[in-house]
Amino acid sequence: MNEIQISQDIITLAVIRSGIRLATPIILGALGFAICSRAGVLNFAIEGMMLFGAFAAIVAAFLLGNTYLGVVVAILAGGLIGAFFAAVYLKYRVDLVILALALNLFIAEMTVFFLRVVFGAFGSWSDPSIQQLPEINIPLLDQIPILGPLLSGHNIIVYTSWFASFALYVVLFHTRFGRHIRAVGENQSAAETVGIDVARVKIFVLILSGCLAALGGAFLSVGHLTLFTRDMTGGRGWLAVTASLFGLNHPIGVLFTGLFFGFADAFAVRLQTVTDIPPSLVQFLPNVAALVALVLVGARGKLREELARRRFRQRAQQEVAATVVTPAE
After folding, report:
1. Spatial CA neighbour of 30 closest among 168, 131, 136, 146
2. Residue 329: inside a domain, yes or no?
3. Using CA atoms, how far apart are residues 31 and 16, in angstroms rounded to an integer?
4. What is the pLDDT tens value at each position of the chain, 329 positions in all?
5. Cα–Cα distance between 221 and 8 in angstroms, integer?
6. 198-218 vs 46-64: helix crossing angle, rounded to 10
């Protein structure tokens, strides 16, 4: 009886609703990584772009006195980071992994530096004048039992993450430019041969990736909270990379995988309040989910290779059998 009561206390509508909110930055970051991967660019700078977006959003919201303008500034800032990333990568042919790690470290220290120099804050900063993004109640939907409390009453960034998932799906698989993006990622030389501007495609996906990741960061600082703390993203950029890989770099797969990680995060937070499990162990649960996802990704890749080898052997055996000439009667 106690076990049933505990499960009812853990799995509630409030926890599921919290999971939907917490999935937002992961979904947006994963979409940014997915579209880059589709173009053959591994953008491991999602963590830094997300952190920069969080910082830019709250600073702009404070200086401009408008949270929505803060979000717009964050998106533009993320686009600039993406453009810088593309310029350095395409012009100087810097290794992508080294460039991404350097950018992540630089942004992490840069935000701390400006936090101290400009605001005189150490560790975290906020201001009473900063307003949190308001919740949007969807007419009619908010009156439906269960679905209403779950899907209505979120802020605009949450809904944007859902819309972006379906919009990217349409762009990638139902537009000419989407076919160009996938062609560059599958075979760059062949794409160049048919006249596709590979550099333009890569610049576009990196800028869009920066905008999406920065929007996810803006959710953390002005959409979910109204403050900025050192390393505020807390590894969500890397969770976004994992979600993208587990979702096969497909926008719809990314959406559901991001929701899975969001629910894992909300579940971990809830466990701290209703059980006696040590908080340090509970906070490790989202990372365990990420590790399991990566293991499954690796296993899926090996299974795909094994199936491909089996199909090749079967095809070879069929071709050999077809070439055998039977004696004429």
Report:
1. 168
2. no
3. 22
4. 444 444 556 678 888 899 999 999 999 999 999 999 999 999 999 999 999 999 999 999 999 999 999 999 999 999 999 999 999 999 888 888 899 999 999 999 999 999 998 888 888 899 999 999 999 988 888 788 888 888 999 999 999 999 999 999 999 999 999 999 999 999 999 999 999 999 999 999 999 999 999 999 999 999 988 999 999 998 899 999 999 988 989 999 999 999 988 988 888 777 777 666 665 665 666 666 666 766 776 676 666 667 767 776 777 677 677 775 445 44
5. 31
6. 60
Output Rg (C-alpha) for the chain, integer angstroms: 23
The answer as to whether 328 is a domain residue is no
- Expressed as residue numbers, the domain containing 56 is 2-321
| Alpha helices (runs of H) in 65-155, residue ranges in sequence order | 67-92, 96-119, 147-151
Prediction pTM value: 0.87
Asked whether residue 13 is assigned to any structural domain, the reply reads yes
- 24 CB contacts (<8 Å, ≥6 apart)? 157, 158, 161, 216, 219, 223, 224, 258, 262
- Could you tell me how many residues make up the chain? 329
Instruction: State the Cα angle at 17 between 16 and 19, rounded to 5°.
Output: 65
Cα distances (Å, whole numbers) of residue 147 to 21, 151, 202, 253: 15, 6, 39, 21
Is there a domain that residue 327 lies in?
no
Q: What is the DSSP string of 273-326?
A: HHS-S-HHHHTTHHHHHHHHHHHHHHHHHHHHHHHHHHHHHHHHHHHHHHHPPP
Structurally, the chain folds into a number of domains equal to: 1
CATH number at residue 176: 1.10.3470
Cβ(2)–Cβ(210) below 8 Å: no
- Asked whether the beta carbons of 207 and 24 are under 8 A apart, the reply is no
Instruction: Give, in order, the Cα–Cα distances in Å from 8 to each of 14, 15, 151, 228.
Output: 12, 11, 21, 34
Task: Give how far the C-alpha of residue 269 lies from the chain's centroid of Cα atoms, to the nearest Å.
Answer: 20
Q: Which of 37, 22, 32, 49 is nearest to 261 (CA)?
A: 22
What residues contact residue 65 under an 8 Å CB cut-off, 6+ apart?
129
